[in-house]
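A quick aside before the break. I want you to see a complete sequence-to-structure record at least once, exactly as it would be stored in a machine-readable document. Don't worry about memorizing anything.
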Amino acid sequence: MELVDELLRQADAAHGHLCAGQILGVRMALLGLERLGIHDPRGADRKRLVTYVEIDRCATDAIGMVTGCRLGKRTLKFRDWGKMAATFVDLAAGSGVRVVAREDSRELARALYPHIELKSRQQILAYRELADAQLFTEKWVGVNVAPAELPGYKTERFPCSRCGEGVNFGRFRDVDSQRLCLSCARPELRYWTPEE
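That is the input. The structure line, written in tokens, reads:
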């Protein structure tokens, strides 16, 4: 438990507070790394690991902290599916394990600490001590990490024919004989609108 306590201290410092999601994230990452046999993800094993997270919540920060995977390193992949789940991929072995938080873990926390009124406090206490099988489901999965998604991948950079902004990693569409960035090719998918 000493390793978990130290990682929780680091997660708290990196994220700004300790919550049930941070605990789930730390434990989820430790379980994934254990299953893959990756013992030093931020050191000697760092080039072996890619992690896919499926939610943009507290657990994701903890998973990144434990694994050393980062968006900027191209080793942390975000899929906005709204699930408390992560898939840990060992590039060297070609294997992956998907770890998902169990829905009934909140009920287990409530049953374990019925005398505590705050659900968040129940969860913080319970998620530290419940067994992995009580917190998570896991399954081995195949993950095809495309070469363009790998860390260190290099590709041609070009300016969008419409807005002039530079585009990396083949994130373009050919439209009417023009090479356009994704936001110009599909403006309805933009998260922003220009103010004119």
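Two observations worth writing down. The chain is about 35% helix and 20% strand. Strands lie at 49-53, 76-78, 85-90, 95-101, 136-141, 158-159, 166-167, 172-175, 178-181. We'll return to this after the break.
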